[in-house]
Design brief:
binds zinc ion, alpha+beta, single chain, five-stranded antiparallel beta sheet, 7 helices, elongated, 27% helix, N-terminal domain of MutM-like DNA repair proteins, four-stranded antiparallel beta sheet, 2 domains
Length: 270
Amino acid sequence: MPELPEVETTVRGLTRFLEGERIARIAVNRADLRRAFPPGLVQALTGATVIGLGRRAKYGLIHVNRGQTMIFHLGMSGRWRIDPEALGKHDHLVIETGAGHVLALNDARRFGSVDLVDTDQLDGFPAFMALGPEPLGPGLTAKHFANAFENRIAAIKLLLLDQRIVAGLGNIYVCEALYRARIRPDKPAGQVATAALGRLVIAIRAVLEEAIAAGGSTIRDYAQPSGELGYFANAWKVYGREGEPCECGGKVARFVQGGRSTFWCPKCQK
Ligand SMILES: [Zn+2]
């Protein structure tokens, strides 16, 4: 599933082909993904010029010069294909730029979504209204966590997955960040010391930025005809490594929290 770093690298990859470009043609090849494509999407964007791209949580943003923004979510399996040799049956939305590049939003399982909103109304987009601060933005601080966690007895890992507390963090990155910050995933959030919350902010940013950098190294391939935006492998320290040794001499363990696997080291996470 695409997580925040994959969405960020996707947006950066798309920026190279879209920013400042005219949308010469846009087509949708079916009525819906997870929900219907917005009515009037094709008419609204045909001939428009892309003035910038961005990201909010796990949503990509494509801003055009008509005061509107196309919002896309990659769902479980979505990816953008750049200049594919041939369009496939899962290329559900296709953009052709003035420069002649073809960008196809491919989503085999169709859990993704596309929306069109007025750019000055972005904050009112339902999925954005209750979002906490961006993990890579200035709003995420130890103080923010201290306020959000005050008197909370829920496990810190579960609260880190709550998008109202911090936007866009998924299971893998939460496991990895708690490991780096040496915090037990099942510790009641309200009992985590301020110093540990400071380590957590640094750890969250580090795991995301390293993943983005790793994705960035694959972006070089994107200009090739078979190039795809969306996925890359990472070397996780604990995620998916149950039973493997930790650098501390302990062993990576797994348990289920809120229906998802938590990977951690019982020896060095306190
Ligand atoms: Zn350890």
